[in-house]
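Changelog-adjacent note: as of this version, every example in the card shows the full chain rather than a window. The one below runs 293 residues end to end.
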Amino acid sequence: MWQGMGSRAGRTVTRLPDRGYRRAEQGSVGPILLEVRPSGDHIDLQIWGPAATPTGEAERALAACKAWAGFDDDLSGFADVIAGTPVLRRVASQIGEPIIGVMPRAAESFGRAVLGQLVQGLEAGRSIAQMVAMTGTPTGHGVWAYPTRSSLGATSAHELRRCGISLRSAGALHAFTVDEARFQALANARDWHAMNTHLRRVKGCGVWTSAETRLYLGDADAISFGDYHIPALVGWALGERTETDEAMAELLAPYKPHRGRVIRLLESAAGRGLVSSKPRRGPRAALSEHRYW
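Full-length structure tokens:
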């Protein structure tokens, strides 16, 4: 049973001993593994799976692996938009310009965004892993493939509650599966305006969830308004000490079309102690023990 599996069960991505990463994607004849490995001054990409995998499908998997590793990211203009902000220039020179990789499936991007609503990151990760272990496809290589449209759609909201998923979130997951092909096509076309419009029509998907979904899919300008931490992070890092969405929007306005990338840069810099951050005034809240809401 999935409940009895170890803590690594349900992972769609795992770290490899050589600092590389592996993820699993669904294939027509079985899961396909995507691997990204650093090798000297370059990066090796590899895919492998069932021998019967159609050639076209294997080529698409390799392209997805390339995008996941960040090779398709467009940094054009980023250096220019941060040129007038000393703190951004400094941290970019120290840790490098943030590369935004593309999660291969829009469904997983949306699922991770939905399950990240109103909970701590650790709890969201736990629910995602439990859901994938329950409904996804194991590979035998330390990773699971995110569930197919039919598998997730056939899993009742009552069953998903066992993973700490609210009825509201379960409804959003099911609603997304109905039009999954359209969302994937919009993601492939990088039509972020249309993507946002259609996502906001899904019951249970607001501004924050849409932005998180699009950021997973490579939208470098997506801003997660409504986040508990990001406004203060941006305000303090840029020397304004503001903590509202309105103030954050004003601070980030000069950095279009890389506002989401700037946030990524500041998050990374804050984690390394390279920028000012709001002092913590109390211990981190404990993860919830009762998860059937």
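Structural remarks: The two ends are 23 Å apart (CA to CA).
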